[in-house]
Amino acid sequence: MRQLIAGNWKMNCLSAEAVALAKDVAAGAGDIQAELLVCPVALHVAAVAQALKGSTVAVGGQDCHQEAKGAHTGDIAAPMLADVGAAWVILGHSERRQNHGETDELVREKCLAAAAAGLTPIVCVGETEEQRVGGQETEVVGWQISGSLPKPFNGVIAYEPLWAIGTGRTATEQDVANMHAFIREELVRQFGEAGRGIRILYGGSVRPANAPGLLAVPEVAGALVGGASLNAADFLAIARAARSV
Ligand code: PGA
Q1: CA atoms of 110 and 89, how far apart (whole Å)
Q2: pLDDT tens digits, residue range 61-86?
Q3: Candidate list 65, 93, 127, 186, residue with the active-site label
Q4: Which member of 104, 136, 179, 192 has the lowest number of beta carbons within 10 Å of its beta carbon?
């Protein structure tokens, strides 16, 4: 299977910038073996999907509501993302867990809504610095996995230690290897054989310079890239470091 390199554009880019960035990524994607995905703000999903038509680059949202429609001012439903061209959706990102109080249970409900709309969820898990210093990182991530993923789960997990997000500090390859091995064990314990097929991405300050090392770690099936995905050349350089898994 090819590694998945997903760009999380977060709350960046006006519409023309989003379209230009998407076109630059598509223009350089021709010789790339990895599976490519970009996730602009929901407002730009339609325009980015249009710009990427005919390319190998997929589009995703950064969140969705747990219900398919209704009286939820300001929210966006999974079928709406799918309707304008999204195939994926990031769920339970730590910025949503922290800034919007999203719980594991809510993330699980959102996964069900995404699946019902035909979107593939990328569910983010990861410990805070305090939890890692306290030696609780595996316990925290284990709970997040059991609470956030519905059964069955047809999606991808992204391990993103909070202290590595947007900080320029990456987890060491050994930290990543340990945690990804733990996540795999947990998935097999919780999902049986199906748990072996769930892809696990790493995220947190992935850059062209550290991508080859991180993407070579066992059980790393790709990367969720924030800051560096806003630069097409950097994002493509990361994708070029991908391998078959
Ligand atoms: P970063 O963000 O690459 O800027 O650290 C990663 C993420 O939050 O998905």
Answers
A1: 10
A2: 999 999 999 999 999 999 999 999 99
A3: 93
A4: 192
Q: Is the CB of 225 under 6 A from ligand 1?
A: yes
CATH number at residue 20: 3.20.20.70
Residue 60 lies in a domain: yes
Other beta carbons within 10 angstroms of residue 83's beta carbon come to: 12
Atom of ligand 1 nearest to the CA of 167: 5
Task: Write out the residue range of the structural domain in which residue 61 sits.
Answer: 4-240
Judge if the upstream peptide bond of residue 152 is cis by omega within 30 degrees of 0.
yes
Nearest-Å Rg of the Cα atoms of the chain is 17
Determine the atom of ligand 1 nearest the C-alpha atom of 228.
Answer: 3
Residues 15-44: pLDDT tens digits? 999 999 999 999 999 999 999 999 999 999
In a domain, 155, yes or no: yes
8 CB within 6 A, ligand 1: yes
Let me know if 160 is a catalytic residue.
yes
* Reported pTM: 0.97
Residue 245 lies inside a defined structural domain of this protein: no
* C-alpha 192 to ligand 1 mean position (Å): 30
102 is a catalytic site residue = no
Q: What's the distance, CA 158 to chain centroid? A: 5
Burial of 241 (0-12, 13-18, 19+ CB in 10 A): buried
Please tell me which residue in 35, 160, 186, 219 is annotated as part of the active site. Answer: 160
